[in-house]
Amino acid sequence: MKNRILGILFCFICIHAVSVAFAEQPDSITAIINEEQNKEYSDALQQMLQFIDNLYDNLQRRVKNGEKIVIFFDPAHGIDDDGKWEGEKTGRLSCTGLPEEYYSLALSRQLYSLLKKNPYIQVVSTQDYIDALEGKTDTYNNITFRETVELAKNARAVLVISEHLNNTASIFKAYGLANVKGIHITYSNGKAYLTHIREEHKGFLTLYNKFDASGFSYRVASNVKEKLLAYNLRVNGWNYGTVADDRFT
To answer: Which domains does the chain have, with CATH numbers?
Structure first.
């Protein structure tokens, strides 16, 4: 009898503790828990997980059997409905005055050319961006990343490539420390760091990923550094990446 009473009391304490803990959760956490208990949300989540399992399951064997690895190449910004480049409108300009897309497309074309040579890979994208990658045109339309995700999903792409260039624009995206080796840290309200990047820096910033075990990121950054030096541009130490602007030192 005594053990039964203790057992009931223990269960009551546990239930009460869970109830109290649940009640003390932030609204955002409570909302997630409630969504998980929603059948419609739960079914959608299960379908998503099943889709991911089917997409990546036995990929190596499927490739050996003739299936190709589908890669979606995301248009990096592009022309908006008003006919202007997204990079130009948002201040993503280089020291030459050209928008981000000009350089992004040049790099993307080289990567696309390499990917096309791989018999196990199929590259997909919007038709106008494919035409741009193949050199048939120098313009392409901007799409939202939500559209990118939807198109990639419909194509059953196992990877999405979105080639962008970091910037310190004077109006947009001028948040945080862009000169941290190995990682690009940004803050939506990083007022404390804006003193370093209030103006558009017409310098050169190259980051490399120190966690890249292959060493590819470091080699690319080193090559950029050598090119900058070859053109007599100032380059500071690796503690800040590669920067030809003394305002970063």
So the answer is: 2-52 (no CATH), 68-165 (3.40.630.40), 166-249 (no CATH)
Give the predicted TM-score (pTM) of the model: 0.60
> Residue 66 — very low, low, confident or very high, per pLDDT cuts 50/70/90?
very high
Q: What region does 141 belong to: left with phi over 0, alpha with psi -120 to 50, or beta?
A: beta
| CA–CA distance, 34 with 27 (Å, rounded to integer) | 10
Q: Is 33 helix (H, G, I), strand (E, B) or coil?
A: helix
Pick left, alpha or beta for residue 245 (phi over 0 → left; psi -120 to 50 → alpha; otherwise beta): beta
Q: With helix as H, strand as E and coil as C, how does 59-119 read?
A: HHHHHHCCCCEEEEEECCCCECCCCCEHHHHCCCECCCCCEHHHHHHHHHHHHHHHHHHCC
CB neighbours (10 Å) of residue 72?
23
Q: How many residues does the chain have?
A: 249
Distances (CA, A) of 63 to 9, 49, 69, 125: 59, 22, 7, 21
